[in-house]
Structures are given as structure tokens and as C-alpha cells.
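Look at one such:
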Amino acid sequence: MKPELQKIFTVDPFKEMNPDKPGEVCNLLEGKWVQGKVFRKDLPDPLNGGVFLRVPDTNEYSKYIDNLDICPKSGLHNPLKNVERYLLLGDVCTNAAELLRDKEVSAYFAKLIQRVMPKSASQCLGEVRVTRIFLENFSGDNVRFLARGFSNPGDHLGQESSGYRWPFGSVCIIAPFNFPLEIPVLQVMGALFMGNRPLVKVDSRVSVVFEQFLRLLIHCGLPSEDLDFINCKGEVMGDLLKQSNGKIRLTQFTGSKQVANKLSVDLKGKIKIEDAGFDWKVIGPDYDPEWSKYVANQCDEDAYNASGQKCSAQSILFVHRSWEKDLLPRLADLASKRELRNLDIGPVLTWTNSQLNEHINSLLKIKGSKLLFGGQELTNHSIPSNYGSLRPTAIEIPIEELLSDKFGLVTKEVFGPFQVVVLYTDKQINLVKKSLEKITQNLTAAIVSNDVLFQQDILGSTVNGTTYTGMRARTTGAPQNHWFGPSGDPRSAGIGTREAIVSTWSSHREIIKDVGPY
């Protein structure tokens, strides 16, 4: 890497880490990098169990709470204050996107992602590409355009009402492990665009990625005082939020529904959620042998890329019986070709093997269920025991049993390379729709069919926020070119697009100007 680029970064993912002198992640507070005093001891290298990084185990957070007062309720900027900051942030996006176009910088972040969240090189590079395109989308004047409002004539001469997009002020962003660059960068930049000042916490297993990108953003002109960055355990962050006494006016959380619901209570509803999701795909009745290979490939990628650790991963697959004899063998064949060697399959960071096996065994006790493929642990590896290592797995559940008292068990989200398969006939389509109605997470979905009437029937009966339809339909996608987020929940947060940023990171303010005449 060029010397001028090397000065930006403090961790080298291309070198084997020295256990006596591992790389170190820092906090950012009051515009200054702060080294940790105590470090996490439960974050081994996910591929070999060795020492890779020292991550702060921050327990004292009073200064972070005090620092929230830097930002008033009216934000760091808004349409009537400090408007030059819209242009400044557009320039930051321009500069950062240009650096990400440098092949060495792109390769750096792809490798860093892969070291902490092992997934294939194409998946890691894809995450970098999405982040770059997002920054390109909001370069130049496009940050300013996010704050576009409107006006309406009043009741009499001199009166006019104007609608503005207004920031919240001090906000908090809690980001997960599975997309360690894309999710925190897109949400943090969206918060900043609208005038907010975020306190950011990224899952400690992968927080080095955002920390290094934050160094790049500061290099590209972002004022270092514009946000704070903390590394701590989840329960410590929960305490910080509760102790902040309402100074944090909005928390944006991406992660499990269980934690999201707890935070909703703790924060008295001042939260926007992009929850984990139990995502469904319905293969329609219009079987087409010409499309079978493509559909199978997309199903395999949706279920097992990143070892199934995507909030948009295909969790349950409804297959019309007309596809059964062709599609299911293809799925088994594709799954069998995934290898740890190239990280097409890899460590499961939030489920252990014992937890995965327990869930599989519970499902196989359901009447009529059967293991379609997988179910075994990976072999010949050095993945530490506190992480899972499961081969791509699918279990078939009869549709009648799905709608029994086992529904909660069957639709339990497994953040790993696992899916449920349900076969149905034309006469059972209402059972499919009843099943979709009962699923409580409404993030992504796919309707694989070119039958327009079938599409309309399923689309009209469901609410998922990001829904793909057509023979090319998928459940996983790139959020820089369309809205990505759940629906059917007033707490829903979006990511990626203008609409997502405006709805998540600003509120509506109406100003009525009334100057007369008398």
C-alpha cells in the first residue's frame, strides 16, 4: 500500500498477528482516539482461535454521556443553521468514495472484513462496493437535497406554511457483526447527513472495521468531533442508554428482535429498528425447467452466503410441488460444494454447535419432518468451540405441522447456514398465506414466479419491507440502490436510499410564516 495510505490505518489484516503485540482498537471521544485500559478476552480469531486484536472492554462511560450535551436538539446543522455542513459532508463522501476506488484500499477493507467476519472474498468485496456506491450517491450536492422541504400558501396574504426535515440531535447507533462496514457506515453517514451527532457502538467482534473506516473518514475531512465511538459489552451499552436520561433522542438498532424489544421498553419507544428477520421465499406454481438452475443458485446464495449470517438470509423456503423433483436435488448438490477453504461456508459467530444441533434435533422430532441435507459439523478446521461450524443444512417440515403448536419452534431464527423447506400444492396456497401472516419478522421476502396473478395474491397478503418478485427474486440484495428495512412496524428503520435516510434520521417540522399585512 502507498505510504500516504498506510498512514491512515493502524491494523494490517494481511499480516499474521503477533500474539504478544496484537492490533489494537481504540475508542473515539471528544474528537480524540482513546486507547483502552481493559480489553475483551473472549474474542478469539474466528478461524484459528488465536489472538488477533485487543478490543477495549469499556465500563466507565460517564464522559460519553456528558459529551451528548455537545449537540443541541436542533442538531449540528439543519435547514436554517450551519447549512455549509451539508456541503462539507458531500465533500467527505466524494473523497471517501474516491479512496475506496483505489484497489489497495478496497482490498484492505475486504481483507479486514474477512478476518473478523469470515465470508468469501466476493462477499467481502461486495460489501466494500456497496459502501463506495452509497458514498458516491451522496457526493456533491446530494446531502443538501436530502433536506428538501415544501411550502403551501396560507389563508391570507403574507401567510405561508413550510415543511422542513429536522434532525433529532444526539442519537445512538448500535450495529451488528455480519456487515461490519456496510451497516455502520450507511447508518452513521445517514445520521450525520440530517444534522445528528451519533454515539456509535459496533459489535466488538468486528468493530475494528468501522474504527479503521472512521480514520479514513476523518482523513477525508469529517470533523473528528462529529461523533463518538465506544467499544463495550452489550449490557454496558444498555446501561449507558438507560443512564443517559433522555439525552439520546433516538437510538437506531440493527440486530435481534429480542434485544430490539427490550430496548424499545428501556428507551420508551425512542428507537428505530432493523431487526434480524425470519425471511421467507415462495416458489410459485409456474415451474419452468429453463429457470430451474438459476432459481436453485439464487436459493443457495440467499440461504448460505456468509454462512447464513445475514438479516436478509432465506430462512424458510416454500416450494410448489411442481418444482420438487428438479429443485431440491439441485439445492443439495450446490450446498455440498461449499467449502471452508474459500469461506463459502465458515464460522457461525452467534450460535455454538451444541445450540445448532439441539435446534436441528428438536425440528426432526416433528411428525413428518426430515433432513434434506447437511446436519453435520465441518471437519478439518481450527474454528474455536465458542463459534459454530455447521455444514449447509435444510430440514423439510410438512405444511400441516408448520401451522401447529410447533410454529414458534419452526420459525425460530437461526443465524447460521440453516433453512426450513415446506412443500405445498395449489390447494394449500391458503395455508402458505396463513403461515406468512403468522411470521412476526417482516424484513425481506421473495416471490419466485412470473405469474402476475400469483404475485399479486401473495404481495397483497403480506407486508415485508423489502420484497423481490419475479423469477429472479431473491431475499438478499444491495441496499444502495433500493430501500432496505422491515415494514408493518412503526419502529421500522430503513437503510441505503434517500427515503430511508430521511424517514429514519429526521422528523417533520412545520413553520408557518405570517408577516401580514395587518
About this structure: The CA atoms of residues 21 and 45 lie 14 Å apart. The first strand starts at residue 23 and ends at 24. The mean pLDDT is 95. The radius of gyration is 24 Å.
